[in-house]
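Chapter summary example: a protein plus magnesium ion.
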Amino acid sequence: AAKKEGRGRASAFDASMLQIIEQRELLRRSLRIALERDQFSIEYQPIAESDRLIGFEALLRWQHPLLGQIPPAVFIPMAETDGLMSEIGRWVLENACREALNWPSDYIVAVNLSPAEFLVSGLTDRISQVLDSVGLASDRLELEITESVLLERTVNNLDTLNTLSVLGIRIALDDFGTQYSSLSYLKNFPFDTLKIDKYFVSDLETNTKSQAIVRSVITLAHDLGMEVAAEGVETAEQADWLRGLGCDRLQGHAIGKPLPTQAIREFVAGSGFMLKTVTRRPIIPD
Ligand code: C2E
Ligand code: MG
Ligand code: MG
Ligand code: MG
């Protein structure tokens, strides 16, 4: 291949670029019709408090007819730039709230909100309408936002979060520690839960810096009256560490992977939802 320089190389490069661009274009066009063609679904990942399940996080899935499962990290940014995320997000919110009616009545449902969804006007009305029409108590809904949502720290953002809070809806700050992690967010916005990103959890057993950061963040959040959740808990050792450091909630493959609706329904309808003392195996097996 090295001796094939010049034109040959350039055209090979162009061809692969073109393929990528065409695939992105294909995805974009598909995304516009995905909702009406019923290609979206939601998986639910368990959220555990020390010895019991307290609910599930809704995670959007897109099954493309030709390309298969497309990760949210790929299609959500596309949906955002194409102005589709507001409608898709509404679909997620409605379906997730409706699904929560099938669970024990004290379980919460956590729903992610991307910046484009959060910044749309009338968000709070829309959310309370959905809760009303579905018949879900507002304190069973937790909305997860990331710091990027708050980058423009306008009065509006604060208003929106305060209104949601007054409605009784819980608010979680997702992926904490990976983006701007401005402490002013913690001072100014009414978060109920702080979710420590898996970046600090994945090497918790061996990395003393991760241990120090997680320990301090838990203390800080508790002093501010917030609950702390850890994401991406994959091993029993990580779960032990987090519980030892006083982390309130655990989420990750060690607790349970995201699962389709039917599996979750069967699980909550069936055996007890009490957890084993320390997670030696997933609470919800694959
Ligand atoms: P997130 O909200 O931080 O969700 C956690 C992500 O980590 C999920 O990826 C989940 O499948 C994955 N995960 C859970 N446990 C483990 C673990 O033990 N190890 C590892 N390595 N990963 C784990 P997923 O489903 O690919 O979603 C990625 C991101 O896409 C989410 O991050 C969220 O920001 C966004 N997203 C997903 N669904 C929605 C949605 O309905 N609306 C919006 N706006 N965003 C969504
Ligand atoms: Mg989340
Ligand atoms: Mg997260
Ligand atoms: Mg994340």
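Key point: Strands lie at 40-49, 52-64, 68-70, 108-112, 141-145, 170-176, 193-196, 227-230, 249-250, 259-260.
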